Amino acid sequence: MEPLGALALVAALVAVTTALGFVWRSRQGRIRTTTGADAVTIDGVDLGSVTLLQFSSEFCAPCRATARVLDDLAQEHGIAHVELDVAQRPELAARFGILQTPTTLVLDDTGRIRARIGGAVRREQLSAELTRLTVAA
Amino acid sequence: MSRPAQIDPRGARFTAAITAVLLLVDVALGLVEGVAATLAERALQPAFLLLAVLAAIFVWSAAGGVARNPWSIVFRRLVRPRLKPPAELEDAAPPTFAQGVGAFVTLVGVVLHLAGVPYALVIAAAAAFVAAFLNAAFGYCLGCQIYLLLVRAGLIRRAAAA
Question: What is the ipTM metric for this complex?
């Protein structure tokens, strides 16, 4: 290939990858509220109160920071935070369609999934969402 | 369980940035050079040699931890002394896992190029570039998705901690 053509392709690769990066970043931590139909039950996990259910893995850089934020928020709002390792519970990863770690599900006190957050959580937004949820409950 | 090795997260980003630049250079070389006619010629093409070196570095640091990556060492020796101490340390496991993925992708490119498959080298280098660039520029975590795919495909399973 001519050097000029190669250069154009390389520039296009960088541009597309950069665009991909902005899209990826804008989706990280976005809260998707759901009106979960059925209450979920999970073996070995007590879901009696509003629960932040976090799926983590060993090779996940942002999982620990997310666990810290969720711990704080759980204390502030008087709710529970449960962290599960997907490698130990692959059936749950499949059941909830987890495609990345961390993924956090917000369950209300009846065990219905009310929100889902892919990627590192954004503290302020989630805190506001939890206030809405716990006040309405 | 022993605590995994801890690294400066900025070092991991620095390593990814240098790797991304070199992979991009390799994509450009691969596009210009194409695929040579004979095996001996292919094994001496600069694009091939660069990708082989990058693959070797990936293998080396996937096996021994990302802290062993030459660019990580450059960061520790030359860059980190000039920076403030890191706000916090991170596990070395996620970037080391990413090095393993890089090793796999680049080795596939190396082998297919030697076999004379057109564009194999360029595609492998471009794929590795995308991951390294996203990691360096956006903090994208390859282990967060690929590892999960392996788990869900049933290739990895851990017993629950006692």
Answer: 0.88
